[in-house]
Amino acid sequence: MNTALLLIILIPLVEIYLFIKIGSQIGAFNTISLILLTALLGIWYARYEGFNTLKSGISQLMKNEVPLYEMVSGAALALAALMLILPGFATDLIGLLLIFPLSRKLILGKFANKYSKKNKQHNNEYIDGESEEIDDKNKK
Length: 140
Fold this sequence. Notes:
By secondary structure, the protein is mainly α. The chain has one domain (14-111). The protein has helices at residues 3-26, 28-62, 68-85, 89-99, 101-123. The longest helix has 35 residues, at 28-62. The radius of gyration is 23 Å and the shape is elongated. The relative contact order is 0.10.
């Protein structure tokens, strides 16, 4: 089964389960208030961290360095903001983990290690070939 399809099915099921469990413990109004509060705080903090990432990226550019981590971190912050806007406790947890710099570094580090190992395996493949220069004048 496709991973995206699986996520589209599983995420709402997990969120509904958590809404029912948490709502039965703290009440419907408190559950809705908590969801709205986490969305607002998450958006505010994502904006704050986004500006910090932008400042860091600009300083990297001024040093003539490629701000690779800042670009990936900015994309992770955009994903975190989206997760926080979506109503639900599981998506809020994922969004909060992506917003905080320490947990974001750990998560991005895991993905970087995973993909760098794959790239190292593929970088050792070389294709040998020969080339020949063709003159357009000699074709006639």
